[in-house]
Amino acid sequence: xxxxxxxxxxxxxxxxxxxxxxxxxxxxxxxxxxxxxxxxxxxxxxxxxxxxxxxxxxxxxxxxxxxxxxxxxxxxxxxxxxxxxxxxxxxxxxxxxxxxxx
Length: 102
What we know:
With 102 residues, the protein is an all-alpha fold. It has helices at residues 16-35, 37-44, 53-63, 66-69, 72-88.
């Protein structure tokens, strides 16, 4: 199982319509960056500190890819397991209830 690098959380109380709108905006933005990689990398270089373009490209490729759009079943399970372990060890005080928005 591979744990995704990160994720986004949307407050349940915002409702299904808001979840749909926010998820679509995030997905569209990520897809745009994947479809226009050179421009996205050029933009990201503003924040790359001391990385040269080659290293920045390699770094971005490791973390921004098709799995960024969809964790897949194993990625979702990895997130559930991580949160459950945090709860079991007392790091998270409330039992996690994770819903993934498609």
